[in-house]
Amino acid sequence: MALAMSGDTVNICYIGTLDDGTIFHSTESHGPLTVTIGAGQLFPALERAITGMRAAETRNVTLSAAEAYGPRRQENIIQVAREHFPADKDIKPGQKLSIEFSG
Fold it and tell me: Whose CA, among 38, 65, 82, 88, lies 20 to 30 Å from 15?
């Protein structure tokens, strides 16, 4: 059985979880992700983990935030005035929030 190498197009099924087991993304609902290894379609650390795998092989891969998203950059941090949030929500300064953007 051939090993996945740079230039190969592969189908990946995955379940992305946080350290506490919370699922943040999965291919279970929409089917495998088709990517070409080495084409920059994945995080470099994930491409390295997939390289050398065989068809139908499973592997647990743990990525740090920096490996998955790059280093923390101050220019990517935005500040939003409290008045832009619902008044009935108990929001504290410094609290991390999840925001969905459309478009």
Answer: 38
